[in-house]
Amino acid sequence: MPDFKVVSEYSPAGDQPQAIEKLAQGLENGLREQVLKGVTGSGKTYTMAKVIEKVNRPTLVLAHNKTLAAQLCEEFREFFPHNAVEYFVSYYDYYQPEAYIPHTDTYIEKDASTNEEIDRLRLSATCALLERRDVIVVSSVSCIYGLGEPDDFARMMISLRVGMTMDRDELLRRLVEDRYERNDVAFQRNMFRVRGDTVELYPAYYKDRAVRVEFFGDEIERITEFHPVTGAALRTLQHIAVYPASHYVTPKDKLERAAEEIERELAQQKALFEEQGKLIEAQRIDQRTRYDVEMMRELGYCSGIENYSRIISQRPAGSPPMTLLDFFPDDFVLFVDESHVTLPQVRAMYNGDHARKQSLVEYGFRLPCAFDNRPLKFEEFEERFHQAVYVSATPGDFEKEHADQVVEQVIRPTGLLDPRVEVRPITGQIDDLVAEIHAREQKNERVLVTTLTKRMAEDLTAHFRGLGIRVRYMHADVSALERMEIIRDLRLGEFDVLVGINLLREGLDLPEVSLVAILDADKEGFLRSETSLIQTIGRAARNAEGLVILYADVITPSMRAAMDETERRRKLQDDFNRTHGIVPRTIRKSVREMVEMAQDCFLLPRCSKSFPQELGKGRPCLNAHIGKCMAVCSGKISCEAYNDAVQGALRMIRYGKKDIVKQLRDKMEAASERLDFETAALLRDQIMAIDRVAAGQKVVMDSDTEMDVIALAGTTHAVCAAVLRYRDGRLTDKREFVFHDTTDINAVREEFLPQYYLDGENIPRTIAVDALPPDAEALNEALNQARGTKVELYVPQRGDVAKLVTMAYTNAVERLGRESGRYTREEKLLEEAAQLLGLKEPPRVIESYDISNWGDGSSVCGMVTFKDGKPFKAGYRKFKMKTVAGTDDYASLAETVSRRAAEYEKYAELAKKGEPCSNWFGQKPDLLLMDGGRGQVSAAKEALAGTALADVPLYGMVKDDHHRTRAIVDSDGREIAINMNRGTFTFITAIQDETHRFANAYRKQQMKQKSYSSTLTEIPGIGPKTAKALMAQFKSVGAVKEATPDQLENTPGVGKQTAQIIYAYFHE
Predict the structure, then answer these.
(1) Torsion of Cα atoms, 893 then 894 then 897 then 900, to 10°
(2) I need a surface site. Which of 177, 702, 733, 1045 has the fewest CB within 10 A?
(3) Which among 362, 356, 374, 360 has a CA at the least distance from the CA of 315?
(4) How far apart are CA 814 and CA 886, in angstroms?
(5) Do the strands 870-871 and 859-867 form a parallel or antiparallel pair, or are they unpaired?
(6) Which helix (H) or strand (E) holds 101?
(7) The pLDDT of residue 591
(8) 3-state DSSP of 588-636
(9) Rounded-to-integer distance, Cα 192 and Cα 213, Å
(10) Cα separation of 266 and 260, whole Å?
(11) In 942-1057, where do the E strands start and end?
(12) 8 A C-beta contact, residue 214 and residue 129
């Protein structure tokens, strides 16, 4: 199997070499989590590629959306042309999940449109992982959603070899079991056809290749790979492995066992409904499930078979599903791109899915096993990788806390510095900004302006237009096609200023932008956090004259951190440029996105032939056969038609898609009238191509539609109102309003609508709702008066608007799912833990302890605190043993908890005297957990006897032979099984793993410091104090070794003579 080999005209530059070396060494040394902190434009993707080449292991690259994943996949394919680079994202172009709306008794059936090409790529990715090791899979968060069992997928593989004995009909039967379809006429992907003793198969994961298997009796005589369109043989094979056409294939024996288990669960659920008097739900679940079981027995699958995946896979209830991660070998490497966005996205997936399925199960549409067809929880995601590299310019708190090593990459190969940052007062900020904009206009440069709200962005855009400034406004609801047009127009100089709310999330990469203005920069919050500010500042980093202005009256901690970080990077970059004689230059990039789109829309050729000179002088290529090229070389297209297409593409590049479709349609109709059907067909194909490019951006209403769509959803804790705002036929805003501590949807509806519209909100001509409030007539009259014209308030029963109401309801349900996961998940876990352990109250504050030892007999202890069910970093503490000699876990735990109790007693006495205490040791925990069994608990109990913490419940966390949490042990040595309660099991496991991680990290830190100190103290005349000063100055022994005598002399406490001694030690 070939090793990874990067093919590139570039070689590592700037600080890429040291980043590549450190990351690769970290992976080889077994570091679990590392961070690559690289600035925008520093070549992080190239660094990732070189690290993959060095470690030579299968790799998963995780991105936070399909577009970024596609971009990364293309870049990695360029870097690794001889290795397998695969793409794995959701294959849905459109997806409406199954749902039930109880208060309107509306069942929404699952509706989806899948993309065949992406389905092929997904299958190709899993097949590659089963066949070879030189595989890179670039994926979105789709990789944490359920997939078929890897073992079943491999078992269902059909191995064909020349000379082997196999009955032809046996091969056909197995192909049908693998979800291939027989079609002797239309030969497409996922299909096979039979011609006598020849079977032709189009594997689901192949592109432009098919396989021909020729039999002689029951013996395979020849296997040939051929082109499915032309039939031309490409190569002869001795062996081929045919993998299933779907990830969700199951052997027949397993399917029969699953059907029996489904029937057993059905009987239990039906009995439960009947016992509760829910006869409709009982009849519904019985009818729906029996139909599914019958389909599975007859056909091998049914609609929604994924909801039975847990039973089919024979997994216990509550266990995580199999995902793409399970197809990887144990030693794979995970790269998380833009980790500050991607990891929170992974964390959020589970709760929204669970909230939607709750009503389906409660009302008899699905069995409880549907809950286990879900994305992975974040803790389960963490368990499935052993080594990860988080890549971001602004790593989040999670990455920083868990990283065993942070590697910086701040030098850009182009020599560009981070932009200058200035703070200016809010008073007069608009006038000041206008002057700056005019200055940029004179230089033909562009400006980005970020505001806090959409209303402010709209008002500011209108104000700028009134001043004669060429300005546009962009936000997250602008379609991908329009966004591309806006960016193109900005770069081409059609306008000078782009206003937005959160431009950093739009992925803007604009070398022409020399000024970024951040209004209200001192308003702390998500949009003005340290991470957001650094990301926004980076938008000006592609221009040598880049400037960022923060308009603020005070410098907030986030501003200060962002400014300090930017200035630190600028200094490093400037020093590097001066040392190497680099002059920063603005990046010059072509506006190629619209060019590629125009080529697709007008079916223009992309080959190396010269047209119109070679018009009609060749045979059509594959692109022409599959409808992606007008086939100019065939001679069927006139020179005039080709020139018209080129002019149309140029118009689209210059002016966008506006009016293009209308012009093409007029030309098509004119061609039809003069009976020029070939030209009409070409124009029709161009119109369809433009529609395909714009797919997913269609507006279901007329262009002058002005409408709001409102739906409400509720749980046992809150009600959510979701609003979709349509203006000019386009979705311009989405809002959700959550009302806590209420379950009365009708009451919220009655109060919400008047408050929302009669308190100053813009009232549209039409308001579509999921249900009318009790006083609908009075409300409608008030809306008419407030608007001054008639307002239509109604409940749509069918059609596109009814689908939009359903979409709004889905948004409300998902928001409640996120809220529920945020506010009640931890509460529920604490209540379950209290019930299991027999505590009177849920343990709000839990402290967990773990001892970590190393070879020389030294020990440390890590104390981790969980507050309200979540890690509380301010309560983490580290203990270095003072009285224990050698490795003795019991004595070390006893010393630790004794010191903890003494600290609490000290601060408790201060509190009695009225002195305020901010130290965490002044808090009394509700529960103490020891990482260990009966011996550890007994040692801690004896040490706490007679102290102020003696009455705190004390338990141990016991692990099995595989180092997994097995049970809880109390102070009397009795074990309490927790693996039957999945919530408590996951919670305790998370506490134990976090404690173990924290203690081990502290031990490694101590070992590293000890190793550094011992190395430097071997130098004559260097004691521990001087060694510590050197490490503080240079960060590593390697840096000390490379330092010059003058640099060494600048270290506090190191004189000229000592500096010479140190230099001579390393160099003589």
Answers:
(1) -110
(2) 702
(3) 374
(4) 54
(5) antiparallel
(6) strand 99-101
(7) 45
(8) CCCCHHHHHHHHHHCCCCCCCCCCCCCCCCCCCCHHHHCCCCCCHHHCC
(9) 11
(10) 10
(11) 954-959, 965-970, 975-977
(12) no
- Distance, in Å, from the CA atom of 1066 to the CA atom of 1051, rounded to the nearest integer, reads 17
Q: Could you give the CA distance from residue 713 to residue 100 in angstroms, rounded to a whole number? A: 11
For residue 823, what are its two tokens?
């506010």
Give the H/E segment covering residue 446. strand 446-450
Tokens of 1061: 């001694």
Residue type, 96: Q
- Residues 172, 173, 179, 182, Cα dihedral to 10°: 40
Q: How far is CA 643 from the centre of its chain?
A: 44
- For residue 910, give every residue at least 6 positions away whose Cβ sits within 8 Å of its Cβ, in sequence order, or none: 917, 922
Concatenating the DSSP letter of every residue in 32-99 gives: SEEEEEE-TTS-HHHHHHHHHHHH---EEEE-SSHHHHHHHHHHHHHH-TTSEEEEE---EEEEE--E
Q: Could you tell me the mean pLDDT of each successive run of 10 residues in the chain, 1068 residues long?
A: 82 89 92 89 88 94 84 86 89 74 79 73 86 91 83 82 90 88 86 92 87 92 90 88 80 81 91 90 91 84 82 84 89 92 86 81 90 88 92 87 90 84 90 91 89 84 88 70 72 85 59 89 83 84 86 90 89 86 62 54 62 59 54 66 71 56 72 71 68 45 76 83 81 79 83 78 86 86 86 86 85 75 66 82 91 78 89 87 83 92 87 72 89 90 91 88 75 75 76 87 73 66 78 75 84 83 79
- Cis status, amide bond into 612, omega within 30 of 0: yes
How far lies 33's CA from each of 338, 393, 398, 408, in Å?
Answer: 15, 16, 11, 15
- Distance of alpha carbon 74 from the chain centroid: 18
Stretch (H or E) spanning 422: strand 420-424
Cα distances (angstroms) measured from residue 293 to each of 269, 368, 371: 15, 15, 18
Sheet holding 59-62, edge to edge: 84-88, 135-139, 59-62, 333-337, 388-392, 33-38, 405-409
Sequence-ordered list of residues with C-beta below 8 angstroms from that of 536, at least 6 positions apart, any chain: 450, 503, 504, 516, 518, 548
Q: How far is Cα 855 from Cα 789, in angstroms, rounded to an integer?
A: 83
- Chain Cα centroid distance, residue 1030: 41
Phi/psi of residue 113, nearest 5 degrees: -125, 120
Q: Which of 889, 712, 892, 958 is nearest to 816 (CA)?
A: 712
Contacts of 134 (CB under 8 A, 6+ apart): 1, 2, 3, 4, 56, 58, 83, 84
Residue in 491, 481, 413 with CA at minimum distance from that of residue 447: 491
- The H-assigned helical ranges of 674-771 are 677-693, 745-758
Measured N-to-C along each axis, helices 776-787 and 745-758 cross at an angle, to the nearest 10 degrees, of 10
Who's near 139: CB < 8 A, 6+ residues apart?
Answer: 60, 61, 62, 63, 69, 87, 88, 89, 125, 324
How many angstroms separate the CA atoms of 464 and 471, rounded?
A: 7
* Residues 653, 592: Cα–Cα separation, whole Å: 9
1025, two tokens = 């104090």
- Residue whose tokens read 């981790």: 864
Closest CA to 14 of 391, 413, 569, 407: 413
Long-range (24+ apart) CB contacts under 8 A made by 584-590 are 584/414, 584/415, 584/416, 584/417, 584/544, 585/414, 585/415, 585/416, 585/544, 586/416, 586/511, 586/542, 586/543, 586/544, 586/545, 587/41, 587/414, 587/416, 587/511, 587/542, 587/543, 588/511, 589/509, 589/511
Work out the angle between the directed axes of helices 44-55 and 16-28 (0-180°, nearest 10): 40
Element (H, E) at 909: helix 889-912
Other CB atoms within 10 Å distance of the CB of residue 383: 15
Q: Could you tell me which residues come within 8 angstroms of residue 920 by beta carbon, excluding any fewer than 6 positions away? A: 865, 874, 875, 877
